Amino acid sequence: MRDTAVAVPAGWAATATRAAVIPNATDKGLLAPSTPLTVRVGLNLRNTAQLAAAIAQAGKGAKMTPQQFASQYGPTAAQTQSVVSYLESQGFSNVKTSTQLVSATGTAAQVAKAFNTSLESFSLGGVAAYVNTKPALVPTSLGGIVSGVLGLNTASKMTLHPVTARAHANGCLLTAAPTGQCLPAFDASGVQKYYDVSYTPDASGTSVAVISEGNVSEVVTDLRYAESQQNLPQVPVSVITVGLASTDTSGIDEWDLDTQSSTGMAQNVQNLYLYATSSLSDSDIANDYSKWVSDDLAELGNSSFGECEYTAWLDGAMAIDDNLFMQAAAQGQTMFASSGDTGSSCALAPTNGAPASGPPFVSYPASSPWVVAVGGTTVVANADFSYAGEAAWNAGGGGLSQFENSTSWQQQALPTNTGLAATNLRGVPDIAMAADATSGAYNVYGTNIPGIGDCSTGCAIGGTSEASPLAMGSYARMMSWSSNGLGFAARWLYRNYVENENNATTVTGPPPTQAEGGFHDIISGANGAYTALPGYDYTTGLGTFDIYVMAQQIGR
Asked: Is 35 helix (H, G, I), strand (E, B) or coil?
């Protein structure tokens, strides 16, 4: 991981929130001192080396409650109170605590003084934003307690990237004879058959969550419509508003894809939770994660969004969210995150589907070592939707993190003999699923989806925004198979790979793949800088699921 040390004046201590600028933007001067702001102060964990070892060694059924985690690894009550007292002494109001976070409201002037920083206004393409142009500092008495400070930057935020291809055509789009194979748009039954749910039970014993933003009431309406159109059971749904309620509906197509594809693959779930936060800012997303972790209601979560990992490192979101994901893993929860749709490039600009069009960073939160990062494939099916083969999707995100280290379980699979991989950096993705909107998209239903329109007969949507919830729905079935005893997914998936890596057998496509334990090892295609090869690679990770085989092998 990169060194985050910064020079600080006497009496102050550095946090993970570093100075930022907005390239090619017009500097409008200091942010007006009276501007109201909400800050979220992240708190450090205790005994992190011991915690990492506990996660790595946890057996099936071993998981902590939030209370147990707090007593062993979370910030102490005294540490939390010291941050609360400091914020109150600086004139902040509405000071509230949640899992690993302390939130408060104040003015720009109070924020600048409390964190010894400077807040500057910018304009980029007519859009106003502000960032902290000096690092966020805290008094030395809080130096070992505070990890970072969010809310000082409106330029760093997550982006959504569902890719809409076409209206739903019934069945497959048949390719040329004589193969009889097709480039499918999946309904629930088709994707279940393609990834071989076979005799696995549905996921009615497991709860899942979609991390979302805005007003999601239409998402529930569209889900009910999709269920009726495909003769699926109605899953119980709970909407949990986190922070200030928002009227934004611009992300409905994303949340429709997340909810419909995950529960469609799962067939049923115990409960679907929609954690709807106020915006896609790093601060509000961290608040959403904090609520998901503290509630500990859903064993699985999905994040179909991301940002260049550099910006998450810069504003401190990486340090704060990684701590929350560590707690989730210790509690037996798994967050699935899409690897992005810009190939081996960083999503610093709107370059969806254009590999090598930006700097070579990977996406966050996919690059967190404590989530399951999901890349994308282009799929080919037989006419009955059974499996034919897959290749790496050319726009699927992947590569090596420049800020995160790999875990002990990933180190067993990484190609560490040459280049940057030998430095023990985190590889992205971990696994992959269907993502190519022209061959493998998921049919989303709704009578009037914002930004798309009438999808009453289905609209095919792809991207790794599809792959991640498909992976969550797949693992939900495996969790229910094991009576939710598996817990955090990453260790079991890498263990399955290691146990079977010497037993790979080629499956005739086209495109050909290798059967390797519970995985289809993808061995063709590329995402720009990286090529799919036998074994782990930076396009599709370990591969895609054969759900029935995987469930038998890791659920036993």
From this structure: coil
Strand-pair category, 372-382 with 387-392:
antiparallel
Which position among 258, 430, 436, 521 bears the catalytic label? 258
- pTM (2 decimals)? 0.95
If phi > 0 it is left, if psi is from -120 to 50 it is alpha, else beta; for residue 29 that is left
DSSP 492: H
How far is Cα 196 from Cα 257, in angstroms, rounded to an integer? 21
**Over 417-447, what HEC string results?**
CCHHHHHCEEEECCEEEECCCCCCEEEEEEE
Task: Note if 258 is an active site residue.
Answer: yes
In contact, 128 and 31? CB cutoff 8 Å: no
Q: Which of 121, 281, 367, 465 is catalytic?
A: 465
**Is 60 exposed, middle or buried, given 0-12, 13-18 or 19+ CB atoms closer than 10 A?**
middle
Q: How far is CA 319 from CA 327, 347, 364, 404, in A?
A: 13, 20, 11, 10
pLDDT digits 0-9 by tens, 463-504: 999 999 999 999 999 999 999 999 999 999 999 999 998 888
Of 196, 218, 227, 254, the catalytic one is 254
Greatest CA separation found in the chain?
76
Phi and psi torsions of 75, nearest 5°: -60, 145
**Whether 299 is catalytic:** no
Q: Quick one: which of 251, 253, 255, 214 has its CA closest to 237?
A: 255
Q: Token pair of 499, please?
A: 């146990």
